Write a sequence for this structure.
């Protein structure tokens, strides 16, 4: 689908101007599309962010999700290939997390896992998947070894299923049926891992199907598909896709403060004005590559970021876009009214990411009231913020770009793509505006 097709389809929205979330139909009205509406929940969000599973129920986001993806469990090979709890306190030990349904946690299961149990009781159709891995070098190395032989693959998959699906969490702690499947987040396989990547997925699929014969339940498999050609070139996308129900494909991190020149981090389309034009650093290029490789459109789940990237020392030219910078942007106060002077995590009130060059949507949404101007690029379907006084530039998504991306999901090919997801749920505003916009756009196409 071309930019022109998308904009023509969105013409009614564009004429009105920025879309009001309140104008969208609410859940339970109209027709549904069957698209996946996913969101990653970071286990560590209970700490500085103070964001809990209970928040998903309180702000209504849980009513919108079809899939909750819990990040992360670790991959390990010591003493044998296995899944490992990454944070036992957050996962199943903390007795201090707020109840989802108002009933106190009785134990011995506590933490996020107990909260997930309560959430699933309230939302029996919600699928909860465990994401294994993440971007750490230790996980990447462990995946490579765990997938390297048939025996290792069997041991690894069996361990993950035993702990997280059959629910043998720890000694004396059991939670059968807690997770409905897995999301493999292997970042990033090397060229030598290509066949083993597919073989590992196949082993998981086989063992889960065997379990299904006993339980009568279908367990879902997925994997994280990176954006940017250099990151997915070592995955046999066609055959890997055959082993899974869907792929959560990154639609972000096409640019960031690891580079000195500003750019759009999550644009839908490429643009000839971009100095990096033609390098595949946009969503449409990634989608085209995956579909060309043989991934069925229905298995492609588009990733949407609930965070943005920023640079400072950016000249007031082209409202800061495609300009050189001097530094990543400083950490902001969450209310957008100044800078965070203590990023140790001991001081409340800072942007939840506590990282220079990064900011949550919840913080960025406050900046237009605090000296920043917003710019929408209709060529790229991208939005940015610029402050000429501080010479600071941010690239991010807002409800309007999210809604247009859901139109793209519907219109890219006949039948559309499979849905969309966000990284990460805690970075939305208190009302869950971005997730609700995504969900309504996916469920109620215009």
């Amino acid at each position: 689908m071309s930019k022109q097709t998308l904009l023509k389809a969105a013409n009614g929205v564009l004429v009105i101007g920025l879309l009001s979330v309140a104008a969208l139909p609410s859940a339970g009205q109209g027709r549904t599309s069957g698209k996946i509406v996913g969101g990653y929940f970071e286990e560590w969000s209970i700490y500085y962010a103070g964001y809990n599973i209970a928040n998903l129920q309180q702000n209504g986001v849980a009513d919108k999700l079809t899939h909750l993806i819990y990040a992360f469990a670790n991959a390990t090979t010591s003493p044998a290939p296995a899944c490992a709890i990454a944070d036992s306190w957050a996962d199943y030990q903390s007795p201090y997390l707020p109840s989802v349904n108002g009933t106190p946690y009785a134990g011995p299961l506590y933490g996020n896992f107990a909260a997930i149990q309560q959430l699933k009781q309230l939302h029996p159709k919600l699928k909860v998947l465990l994401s294994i891995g993440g971007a750490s070098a230790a996980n990447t190395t462990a995946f490579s070894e765990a997938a390297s032989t048939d025996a290792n693959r069997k041991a690894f998959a069996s361990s993950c299923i035993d702990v997280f699906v059959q629910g043998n969490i720890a000694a004396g702690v059991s939670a059968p049926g807690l997770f409905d499947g897995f999301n493999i987040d292997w970042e990033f396989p090397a060229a030598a891992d290509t066949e083993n990547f597919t073989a590992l997925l196949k082993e998981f699929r086989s063992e889960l199907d065997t379990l299904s014969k006993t339980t009568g339940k279908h367990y879902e498999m997925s994997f994280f598909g990176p954006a940017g050609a250099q990151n997915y070139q070592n995955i046999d996308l066609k055959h890997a896709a055959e082993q899974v129900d869907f792929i959560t494909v990154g639609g972000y991190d096409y640019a960031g403060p690891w580079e000195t020149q500003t750019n759009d981090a999550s644009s839908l389309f490429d643009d000839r004005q971009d100095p990096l034009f033609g390098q595949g650093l946009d969503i449409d290029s990634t989608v085209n590559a995956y579909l060309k490789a043989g991934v069925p459109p229905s298995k492609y789940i588009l990733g949407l970021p609930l965070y943005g990237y920023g640079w400072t020392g950016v000249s007031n030219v082209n409202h800061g876009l495609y300009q050189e910078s001097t530094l990543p942007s400083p950490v902001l106060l969450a209310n957008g009214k100044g800078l965070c002077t203590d990023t140790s995590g001991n001081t409340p009130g800072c942007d939840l990411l506590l990282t220079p060059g990064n900011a949550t949507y919840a913080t960025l949404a406050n900046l237009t009231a605090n000296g920043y101007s917003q710019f929408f690029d209709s060529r790229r379907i991208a939005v940015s913020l610029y402050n000429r006084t501080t010479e600071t530039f941010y690239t991010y998504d807002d409800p309007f770009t999210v809604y247009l991306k859901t139109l793209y999901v519907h219109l890219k090919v006949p039948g559309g793509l499979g849905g969309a997801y966000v990284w990460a749920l805690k970075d939305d505003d208190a009302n869950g505006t971005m997730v609700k916009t995504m969900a309504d756009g996916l469920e109620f196409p215009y």
About this structure: The mean pLDDT is 93. The chain is about 30% helix and 20% strand. Residues 3-305+398-443 form a domain with the TIM Barrel fold (CATH 3.20.20.80).
